[in-house]
Write a structure and sequence with these properties.
The protein is mostly helical and about 100 residues long.
């Protein structure tokens, strides 16, 4: 069995302290997490199916619609400090602002 990294020691100690009949449940859960991570990696390698439904047939790059491309550009401008980021004091305040942007 490989040597555990120090950050996992507490987790391993907790698992070892559980009743024996929990071991199979833990192993099943670990397998589930591994499969879920593999599926997520597959989806990420294929690109965002929601944001970019089409790919350029020549380059294979994702083609975003104009609204999505504008949102990306606005986000980049906020990160560069060219546009001030909006800030809210409450969820209600944010929802009012979102409704007014129609």
């Amino acid at each position: 069995m490989p040597v555990a990294k120090p950050i996992y020691n507490d987790l391993i100690n907790t698992i070892n302290s559980l009743p024996d009949d929990y071991t199979s449940q833990i192993i099943d859960f670990a397998r589930y997490l591994k499969k879920k991570a593999e599926k997520q990696a597959d989806v990420l390698s294929e690109g965002c199916s929601i944001c970019a439904k089409l790919r350029d047939p020549i380059t294979g790059e994702e083609q975003f619609n104009a609204e999505t491309a504008a949102a990306f550009e606005e986000g980049d401008a906020i990160l560069r400090g060219e546009i001030p980021a909006k800030r809210y004091n409450s969820l209600e305040e944010m929802l009012v602002d979102l409704e007014s942007d129609d």
